[in-house]
């Protein structure tokens, strides 16, 4: 049983079999223009243009430079516009809060790792004392540290609440996962963390 199977697989993998498959696919106008770019990231060169395979789509109003326009078209979903400057979509408050939650998480990881490094070297206490002794230096640093910790904590608590929240529907919009409520909780998190961090930095 295994021997015939091996022979069949060998025939399918032979150059002659692969060439036959290519000729079969190329026998149709659609296959002829599609097959050459399978697995690639290019636009078929004859798309929309008169060729040996098709009369083109000029009768549908396709612009003559449509291939050039296609190459400039951003992939969707795309964050940055073609000019690589402006954003393609407006960021809602929910997205901003989500990004901030991830940024604060990364900052906490590096921050605690750095504090642990200096603590093991025995140089953490002098650094903390120097920061605490200067309001100009200490206030912004304490604010940033407090904001990072408080905001990430609030973000984690919100996710715990979300895990147990019900999913709304078109008739019931009271769910905490509805967009307006997500926007509201995001603003509360951003503003509340800033207020708590400000008070903590003054202490």
TrEMBL record:
Cellular localisation: Membrane
Record flagged with keyword Membrane: yes
Cellular component terms per the entry's GO annotation: membrane; mitochondrion
Top-level lineage group: Eukaryota
Gene3D superfamilies, alphabetized: Fumarate reductase/succinate dehydrogenase, transmembrane subunit
Annotated InterPro entries: SQR/QFR_C/D, Succ_DH_cyt_bsu_CS, Succ_DH_cytb556, SuccDH_FuR_B_TM-su
Assigned keywords, A-Z: Heme, Iron, Membrane, Metal-binding, Transmembrane, Transmembrane helix
MF (Gene Ontology): electron transfer activity; metal ion binding
Keyword tRNA processing listed: no
Membrane topology, as annotated: Multi-pass membrane protein
GO biological process: mitochondrial electron transport, succinate to ubiquinone; tricarboxylic acid cycle
Transmembrane segments: 99-120, 132-154
Coiled coil regions, renumbered to chain: none
A Pfam short name: Sdh_cyt
Name this protein carries in UniProt: Uncharacterized protein
Organism (species): Edaphochlamys debaryana
């Amino acid at each position: 049983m295994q021997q015939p199977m091996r022979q069949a697989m060998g025939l399918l993998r032979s150059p002659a079999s692969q060439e036959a498959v290519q000729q079969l696919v190329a026998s149709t106008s659609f296959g002829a223009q599609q097959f050459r770019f399978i697995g690639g990231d290019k636009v078929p060169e004859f798309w929309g243009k008169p060729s040996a395979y098709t009369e083109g789509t000029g009768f549908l109003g396709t612009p003559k430079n449509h291939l050039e326009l296609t190459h400039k078209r951003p992939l969707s979903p795309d964050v940055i516009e073609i000019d690589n400057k402006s954003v393609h979509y407006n960021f809602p408050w929910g997205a901003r809060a989500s990004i901030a939650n991830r940024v604060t998480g990364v900052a906490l990881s590096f921050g605690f790792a750095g504090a642990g490094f200096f603590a093991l070297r025995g140089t953490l206490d002098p650094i903390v004392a120097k920061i605490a002794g200067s309001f100009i230096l200490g206030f912004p640093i304490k604010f940033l540290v407090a904001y990072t910790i408080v905001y990430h904590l609030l973000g984690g608590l919100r996710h715990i609440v979300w895990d147990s929240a019900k999913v709304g529907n078109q008739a019931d919009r009271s769910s905490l996962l509805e967009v307006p409520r997500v926007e509201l909780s995001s603003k509360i998190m951003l503003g509340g963390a800033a207020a708590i961090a400000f008070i903590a930095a003054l202490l």
